[in-house]
Amino acid sequence: MNKFSDFAEKANPLMDGRKMSLDDIIDKDGRGGKEIIVLNFRIKNTKYDDAKNPRCLTVQFAFPEKENEHYVFFSGSSVLMEQLENHKDMLPFTTVIKRVGKYYTFS
Questions:
Q1: Residue 5: φ, ψ to 5°
Q2: Peptide bond just before 92 cis, omega within 30 deg
Q3: What is the DSSP secondary-structure string of 57-89?
Q4: How many domains does one find in the chain?
Q5: Which letter, b or e, does each residue of 44-72 get, where b requires 16 or more Cβ atoms within 10 Å of its Cβ?
Q6: Sites in the chain below the pLDDT cut of 70
Q7: Cα separation of 51 and 70, whole Å?
Q8: Can you tell me the distance from the alpha carbon of 13 to that of 83, in angstroms, rounded to the nearest whole number?
Q9: Nearest by Cα to 56 from 29, 74, 37
Q10: Among residues 105, 103, 96, 32, which one has the least CA distance to residue 63?
Q11: In whole angstroms, what is the distance from residue 32 CA to residue 105 CA?
Q12: Do residues 45 and 55 make contact, with C-beta atoms less than 8 angstroms apart?
């Protein structure tokens, strides 16, 4: 009898965590954001036909004072996607997400 785990492709690990709005953690206009630890991310096609960006970013993170409590946020930010794709070998890392004009960036 075959065992599923012996032949199935390894899927991306499930990104567990409580959903949190990006607005709850970002640095708005220099007023200070919350430092987070970016643990993992996934970029997939969005399920919304009218989205400006056809891709959706899911980020799994924790707060430094509560490293065992995981959270996730979702974004269509192409800047955040590009930064994560370019620096995925540096995960996990600490950062503050800033809103600069109309876009978000890690700092």
A1: -65, -15
A2: yes
A3: EEEEEEETTEEEEEEEEEE--HHHHHHHHHTGG
A4: 1
A5: eebeeeeeeeeebbbbbbbbeeeeeebbb
A6: 8-14, 29-31, 49-51
A7: 27
A8: 21
A9: 74
A10: 96
A11: 14
A12: yes
CATH number, position 45: 2.40.50
Q: What pLDDT score does 59 carry?
A: 97
Residue 69 belongs to some domain of the structure: yes
What pLDDT score does 70 carry?
A: 96
DSSP 4-44: HHHHSPPPPPP---EE--GGGTSEETTS----EEEEEEEEE
Beta bridge partners of 40: 60
CA dihedral 63, 64, 66, 67 (to 10 degrees): 90
Is 2 domain-assigned? no
What is the C-alpha to C-alpha distance for residues 88 and 59, in angstroms, rounded to an integer?
Answer: 12
